[in-house]
């Protein structure tokens, strides 16, 4: 069953999750989550593509040194940052975090971390697009290092087995990987990330891609100028709705990225894809759980390794 309406209730987890807590700011900044939610709502009303942007930002942050908001740091003339790494150059949505942080600093200074804002904003964006509104454990601190040389993310051309190594290294399972890649139901990809799938090899087209999809993508990508890199929907059907359509599409050989399509073909993941395609509610539940696990990777809880930034783009005590 495909979910086509907003799941407007909270999906609750146990009160604590590896030292993070549901309602961490209930006494120190009671309106923290409401403030973030209001900001996300305003931006979503203007541009509903921010859902994919927030999911990508959260993933790219957590998969480097952990969920510490290191991706938000701006480079300076004397300091580099993760923003300069190739995979992060197209990350967007920073203005959403900036706006929420500015309001929170006026309301309760040096209290709500930028890392928590990312996690909360991502949850709120998913909910607005029709996804489950899950509870987000909070209490993260912001990291004190942002190094582009540490950015090593799973690429779209990997096999299932090779991609899985990235996820297991972060404590995530095969099911977590298949579930989290379902976020591509609201995502985009630039043509350069899948161009090789559109090229003829020995006079034959890629047999793992639906010919009609290939023709559509060739038209979009070939019409782009040499200086541009057009982007396309990863879910060509319900592109702005957070549902299980992504899995239905890859089962029809309509996966845009190589890795996405392989999920439906590899014996390791084929059954999971079929389950999620058949049961949208199951996908939503598993996705909520996987997002909480993702948000717990390498969190900084205090001490000398983290603090709460005044400005999400800069360290409090720059070197």
Automatic annotation (TrEMBL):
Note on cofactor: Binds 2 calcium ions per subunit. Binds 1 heme b (iron(II)-protoporphyrin IX) group per subunit.
UniProt keyword annotations, A-Z: Calcium, Disulfide bond, Heme, Hydrogen peroxide, Iron, Metal-binding, Oxidoreductase, Peroxidase, Secreted, Signal
Residues reported in the UniProt entry to bind substrate: 154
Residues reported to bind Ca(2+) 1: 61, 64, 66, 68, 70, 82
Localization, UniProt: Secreted
GO cellular component, one term: extracellular region
EC number: 1.11.1.7
Active-site residues per Swiss-Prot or TrEMBL entry: 60
Cofactor dependency: Ca(2+); heme b
Disulphide bridges, residue numbers: 29-108, 62-67, 114-312, 191-221
Protein name per the record: Peroxidase
Organism of this sequence: Psophocarpus tetragonolobus (Winged bean)
């Amino acid at each position: 069953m495909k979910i086509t309406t907003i799941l407007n209730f909270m999906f609750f987890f146990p009160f604590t999750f590896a030292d993070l807590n549901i309602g961490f700011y209930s006494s120190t900044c009671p309106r923290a989550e409401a403030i973030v939610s209001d900001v996300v709502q305003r931006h979503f009303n203007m541009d509903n593509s921010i859902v994919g942007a927030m999911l990508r930002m959260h993933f790219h942050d957590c998969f480097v040194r952990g969920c510490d908001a290191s991706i938000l740091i701006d480079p300076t003339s004397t300091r580099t940052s993760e923003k300069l790494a190739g995979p992060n150059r197209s990350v967007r949505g920073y203005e959403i975090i900036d706006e929420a942080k500015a309001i929170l600093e006026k309301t309760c200074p040096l209290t709500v971390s930028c890392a928590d804002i990312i996690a909360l904003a991502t949850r709120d964006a998913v909910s607005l697009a029709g996804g489950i509104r899950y509870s987000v454990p909070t209490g993260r601190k912001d990291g004190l290092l942002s190094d582009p040389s540490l950015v090593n993310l799973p690429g779209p051309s990997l096999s299932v087995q090779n991609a899985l190594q990235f996820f297991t290294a972060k404590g995530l399972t095969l099911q977590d990987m298949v579930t989290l890649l379902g976020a591509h139901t609201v995502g985009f990809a630039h043509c350069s990330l899948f161009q090789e799938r559109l090229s003829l090899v020995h006079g034959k087209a890629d047999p793992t891609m639906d010919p009609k999809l290939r023709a559509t993508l060739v038209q979009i990508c070939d019409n782009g100028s040499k200086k541009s890199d057009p982007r396309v929907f990863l879910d060509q059907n319900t592109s702005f709705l957070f549902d299980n359509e992504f899995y239905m599409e890859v089962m029809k050989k309509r996966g845009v990225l190589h890795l996405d399509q392989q999920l439906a073909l590899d014996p390791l993941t084929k059954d999971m894809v079929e389950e999620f395609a058949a049961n949208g509610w199951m996908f939503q539940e598993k996705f909520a759980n996987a997002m909480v696990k993702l948000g717990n990777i390498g969190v900084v809880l205090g001490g000398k390794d983290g603090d709460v930034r005044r400005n999400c783009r800069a360290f409090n005590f720059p070197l």
